[in-house]
Structures are given as C-alpha cells and as structure tokens.
Amino acid sequence: MKVVARTRSLPGLLLALLLAALTVLSTASAPASATTTATGVGTIAEALRKSPVYVDPAASAQLSTADADALAKQIEDADKPLFVAVLPAGYPTQDLFQNLRTDTGVTGLYAIRLGDRFDAKADSAVLPRTAVTNLVTSVKGDTDARTQLTDFTDRALANMGGSAPASWGSSSDGGGVSTGALIGVGAVVVLGGGGAYALVRRNRRRKAEEQRAALERLRIVVDEDITAFGEELDRLDFHPAEAGADDAMRGDYERALDAYEQAKSAMAAATKPEDVRPVTEALEDGRFSLAQLAARREGRALPERRPPCFFDPRHGPSVADAVWTPAGGAPREVPVCAADRARLADGHDPAIREVDTDYGRRPYWDAGPAYGPWAGGYFGGGLLPGLLVGTLLGSMMATPSYAADYGSGYGDFTSGGYDGGDVSGADFDSGDFSGGFGDGGGGDFGGGGDFGGGF
Known about the structure:
Layout: H1 10-28, H2 41-50, E1 53-55, H3 65-78, E2 82-87, H4 96-104, E3 109-114, E4 117-122, H5 129-139, H6 145-157, H7 179-191, H8 194-235, H9 247-269, H10 277-298, E5 320-324, E6 332-336, H11 338-345, E7 354-357, E8 360-363, H12 371-379, H13 384-387, H14 392-397, H15 400-403, H16 447-450
Parallel strand pairs: 1-2, 2-3
Antiparallel strand pairs: 3-4, 5-6, 7-8
Helix pairs in contact: 1-7, 2-4, 3-6, 5-6, 8-9, 8-10, 9-10, 10-12
C-alpha cells in the first residue's frame, strides 16, 4: 500500500500561522508575574528559541558554561534543529517533552539530561522514532554529562534532517517581538498568501541545498566504487579473441564493460542522492558478470546470484551468510565474502566500509540517510532494511515515506507539513513525543512508571 504524505491546504496553513502568532502574542504580552519560574518549561522553551543549549542554574555542576557554549556552537554551525536541556535530578517529568515541544513551538529533536538520566524525542519530520531510540541507547553508558551530550550531538547531527530555526542568533531586548509587529505579521498572514508562499519557497530551496550537499558527499564514495570496478576490469586478463573463449564468456565480459560505462554515465547525470541507486545497481550487475566469467574460465560451476558482501560491496558477490552483531544491536545473518567469513570465524572484525562524515569515519550504515540509495542499489529494496535493522540507516529506511523511495528527503519524513526548524507552534503530532521519560532509551531509566505516566 502506498503511503501518501499528509499535505496542508493554504487556508489551513494560514490559520495555523495565525494561531501561532496569536499564541506568541499572548505569551509576550503576559505580565512578568504570570510567567513560569526559573525552572519552568516556559522559561526553558524561551531560552531554547534563542540558543540550542539550556543549562538550568540548579544543574550547572553537570555542564560548565564553556562546554555548553561549545556544544551550542557545534549545533549552530551544523545548522540543525537540535535542542539540548540540562536539568536537575528532581525536575518533574510528567508531560515534559510534549510541553517543552509545545512551548518552544519549533519542529526538531529535543534531548534532555535530567540528573544522571537522559532521553530524547523528535518530530518525525526530523528523525523517526526508532532512530531516536537507537541514538539514545548508543549513549546510555556515558555517565559524564559532557561526554554523553557530546556523543549524542555528534551522532544526531550526522543523521537528522531540517535546518536551524531562524530565531537562533536573533536579537531581543528582553521583551521579545513587539505587540505591533506581531499584529502586523498576523494581518499579513491572514490577508495575503505571500507569507505562505515564501515559506514554501524557502522549504523547497532548503531541501534542494540539502540534496546537493548530500550528493557531493556521496559522490566521493560512488566515485571510489566506480574506480575500484574499473581497476578490476584493468586487471582482468581476458581477451574476447583468446584461445578457449566462447560466446558465453564474451557475453559476460561485454556485460561487465557495459555496466562500467552505465555506472559512469548515471553518476555524471545524477542531480540528487536518489539518482545514485542506478549507479550501484549497475556496479553490482557488473561484478556478478565478472564472477560468472571467472567461473567459466576456470571450469567451475556458475555461481548463484547473491547480494554483494554486506560489509563492503567492493568485495564482490557474497559466498555465504554469516551471523554478525553490530555494536548495540541484535545478531543477524548478513551476506559475506570469503575473506570476511574467515575473519568472523576467527573472531576478528570484518573489513567494514567506512565513509567520511563531519564527525569522523563511520560505517556507511551510520553515516546518514543519503547512503540509503547507495546501499539500496547494491542490496535491493526487499533485503536491505532487514540487514540494517537496529542501525540508524535501517531505522530511517523502515519508515513508510523512506521505504517508498530510498533516500527521498534525507530526513524529510513528512509530519504535519512542517520541516525541521519550522515554527509550527502547538500544531505537531504529539505521538512523536509520547511515552514516559526514559522510554526513548529502551526503558533503561525506568520508563513512564517511575515518573507517573506518559506524555
């Protein structure tokens, strides 16, 4: 069944923007005595609208000002809607994430360090729930706040979608936006469609920029793959007119050459990461043709059609399935080449394909959603999500909007018509922020029962 993303009509969007403006207006015009306390959710939300990191005064011993500033700079430089709050151990958790998301009003990923506990929730437009769970689980062993928040931020920024909210870095005189300005904005929104049209154009432009950046990073990896296959062809000591060559061998050889040319042409024409899938499909076909040619020349039985080696498709077609357990994941069978099968049997690590990210070298399945099309071309639509279950890329690909077309949107898992960093006010899917504090990390912190219920 094809999943159709929910869209928002222009009148509905205008109404939502007006309601958001009126909400901010009512908050801004409220007297100081009616605002929340220093540790209230409203105060935290106001701080997060101005900066990505908030440290409660009662939790200042957990994260120094210098460390908080460094973390905020990293998030701002990455241009991602990641919000981090450090709160004291006794802070109330009932409806914490949902209320914080409502008061902040910005689509994004929200992470909270509460005493020695940690959890995160996100709008699905930024990161699907299973990916959030994997991220939280990956840092649950870090007891030091600075280490935990840095590790989480590094991994989250490499995988989440969206852009930083425009409110970061905007100046304020302490009183926020003036009442007159808010009324003026509300009037423009109601009376004309220009604001909505500008929002759509901005979102489209931002998506196009994200796609271009993802493609350029992916191009390095794909070019390495094409070069490696070309070198295999150069090393191949086969001539179509040599003694013993038959039509079947020549056919294998021609298919391999055609695959090489097809891969180069497809990559040259690629304009977005989705376009990479035909490239790796061609390379996979070419390597299987070479495996068939080798078997014919050596008088062996022809190999069965198997997927390439899971750990690095450049290793060629797999020869067997072997049990492998990723860090923090569950055991699963993956297709492996002969060399990696031997490594695993001897208790050694396989030769894993790592790629460059902003946060160092990572396995391709932990390098961001743009690698979905690259891997999908090698392993096919039906096989890959099962191989990647429990990994960040696998979690993303398990969502309906991603599975419909590997790589479409790179974090653009549509929810409510808003993208990461967009101001939605209270118009968001509360299910993205449901569950008790600690549920995002697999219940390691006691789940909703310890804190009196869910969100």
